[in-house]
Write a structure and sequence with these properties.
There is one protein chain. By secondary structure, the chain is α+β, with helices and mostly antiparallel strands. The chain is 16% helix and 25% strand. The strands form two sheets. A five-stranded mixed beta sheet has the order 2-1-7-5-6, with helices on one face.
Length: 92
């Protein structure tokens, strides 16, 4: 069963789970399973039906954008990581 590593800022939406086992044959199916189980997480990952621009999903060391996106196939032992982009700061 594939798994998804949850970044610390999003863990409150997954009952503080650092990693969640999910079902799905593709990255998109795995993410759908994740947000179905944890619906409060969905607005932090999706804008409507699209993955938010600042949400990066990695399969191993590869950004899924450079693979086959949400249609990227998964093996049962694959591990995904959600990495939100960080921006901002104060200019002095």
């Amino acid at each position: 069963m594939p798994s998804i590593k949850i970044p610390t800022p999003l863990r409150p939406y997954t009952s503080n789970s650092a990693q969640v086992d999910v079902s799905g044959a593709t990255v998109g199916e795995a993410l759908t399973d994740l947000v179905t189980r944890y619906p409060d997480l969905k607005p932090h990952l999706y804008n409507g039906g699209e993955l938010r621009n600042f949400v990066n999903v990695f399969l191993g060391e590869e950004d899924i954008r450079f693979l086959n996106g949400l249609e990227t196939d998964l093996e049962p032992t694959d591990a995904l990581r959600i990495i939100p982009s960080i921006a901002g700061g104060v200019r002095r």
